[in-house]
Structures are given as C-alpha cells and as structure tokens.
Write a structure and sequence with these properties.
The protein has 130 residues and is mostly beta strands. The chain is 0% helix and 41% strand. The chain has strands spanning 20-24, 34-40, 54-63, 70-76, 97-102, 108-116, 120-128. It starts with 19 loop residues before the first strand and ends with a strand.
C-alpha cells in the first residue's frame, strides 16, 4: 500500500521549479500578525499553461510539541490560458503565489504542499521561531 507521504517530493527551490518557497515578510513576533508569502517557481519560473501548471497550494502550521497541524489556507489557481477556443488561447493566467497572515504565541513549522498537474505533489517547510 502506498502512503501519502511517499508521494510528496522535495528539492532545493533554487534548482527545482516545483518546490514551494516560504518567506516571512518580516521578523516574526509572538502574538502579532505574521505575514507569510508562498510561491512556486521563485528562482526558475514554473510554466503556467493549460497543459502544465500549478493547481493548488496548501499552507499549514504545526506548533512545537503539538501532534496535528492547523490548516491556514487552501488556494486554487484556475486560469491557465484555456478558453472555449481551446488550450492557451486566453489572455487570463493565474500565478502560483499567495500571502496569508497567522497570529500565534508558539514557535513551530510552516509546512506547504503544492500540486503540479504533470509532476505531482511537492512540499517544503520553514521554521517559525520567536
């Protein structure tokens, strides 16, 4: 039987365009809003065509010494150049970039998952420390 965690791929985002990149937009402060930015294709742009695109990004937070993560947000990207005229005929495209804010009193890990319609599931994480 295949376990879901075996399907997630990891790599260095500087050399692999599918890896979600997590950035804190300023130094995190305890019990204050923390802005988190996530994108796929930061160093090497990911294609955004009807045939090859990022479909979604999910962001989780796992506080230290807790068993289960909190789902912060699910973001879908639905415009990839398709229209009733066919693939790649529209001028409307979404870019796999999202921002959200979290407020917490605990350090922990921000964990991100993303899905490429051709290359599957990708993940990365970043420590959130005070």
């Amino acid at each position: 039987m295949t376990e879901i965690n075996s399907l997630y791929q990891k790599a260095d985002w500087k050399t692999e365009k599918h890896v979600p990149v997590i950035e804190f937009l300023e130094k995190p402060k305890k019990d204050q809003p923390i802005a988190i930015s996530v994108c796929v294709g930061k160093e090497i742009p990911h294609p955004n065509t009807t045939e090859h695109h990022i479909e979604w990004i999910e962001i989780y937070f796992l506080p230290l010494e807790e068993k289960f993560p909190y789902l912060l947000g699910k973001f879908t990207f639905d415009a990839h150049g398709a229209s009733v005229q066919g693939p790649n005929t529209s001028t409307v495209y979404t870019t796999p970039e999202v921002n959200c804010k979290i407020q917490t009193g605990k350090s922990g890990s921000v964990i991100v998952a993303s899905y490429c319609n051709i290359h599957g599931l990708w993940t990365s994480s970043a420590d959130l420390n005070f």
